Amino acid sequence: MSVKPSGFPDPAGPGSDLADLMRPLVAAVAQAGAMAREMRDAGLATWTKENDSPVTDADMAVDGFLRERLAAAAPDVAWLSEESADTGARLGAERLWVVDPIDGTRAFMAGGADWAVSAALVERGRPVAAALYAPASEEMFLAVRGQGATLNGAPIRASDRAALEGARVAGPTAALDAFHPKVALNRLPRVRSLALRLARVASGEIDIALVGENAHDWDLAAADLIVEEAAGRLASHAGEPILYNRLVPRHGALLCAGLPLIATVLAARASSSLPPPVPGTTPRAPR
Q: Which residues belong to the signal peptide in this entry (predicted)?
């Protein structure tokens, strides 16, 4: 079971201090995506976690595979993943891997295309390297801090539109309903993988991605860097940046857009012309 990251760039470039980590990261994420597809085709074992969210044997197998591969590449880097127990040992670490082995498990289980393998290297609270792979569409999004973002080796950039009217918006239905009732927006399908929804802002396919409350570090970290390096921004509704590796790795409602448009949205919110974000009601509220 091997997928070569052919067609993907040398992610960090010659001489980069991140190159030694990006190369195994890209290879591991590509191989993990192939593993998940093969396991789904062969038939999945599924069950429900304590928070009533679904999980499969593929989630667990991919989690173990990525942990083994990334630990071999960087034994001193800590670990945070949706499918691994969080011991708190990560809190004192300067660097850690933040991983969602299958983001969009419901889509994955249903045979949909909107799921992804997501992994980021976080340093001092912010991502510095990221790989996000959507196996169904064979899309590999990569980013290294200060070096831009790519999709299958080609540079990508978020939309430079600044007007809300007609903007392409994706997110949970309740958040869309409350977002800006006075402006005509072009509603797109939600994209069940939150990480992939944000990455489509980076590629210019979505203008605004809304994120409901209760997203976690593993949902966000890789896509956050990809968006930032594509001239976009993921932020709270108050305009604050996202910090990772906190005691509780969970976040409130968020906005994601290209830099001109998120400035428009945040200015409108500051002037009180936009309603407050819809609060989540449970830890598993739609993201």
A: none
- Number of Cα atoms under 13 Å in the Cβ half of residue 232: 30
- Count Cβ atoms below 10 Å from residue 208 Cβ, excluding itself: 27
Same domain, yes or no: 96 and 145: yes
Q: Does residue 282 sit within a domain?
A: no
Please give the Cα distance from 90 to 43 (Å, whole number): 34
Among all chains, which residue has been given the structure tokens 């249903």? 110
What residue numbers bound the domain in which 263 lies? 168-270
Known binding residue 219? Answer is yes
Q: Is residue 100 a known part of a binding site?
A: yes
Q: Binding site annotation covers 102?
A: yes
pTM for this model (two decimals): 0.91
Q: Is 82 annotated as a binding residue?
A: yes
Mean pLDDT in residue range 181-193: 90
Amino acid at 204: G
**Average pLDDT of the segment spanning 184-196:** 94
DSSP-based three-state secondary structure for 44: coil
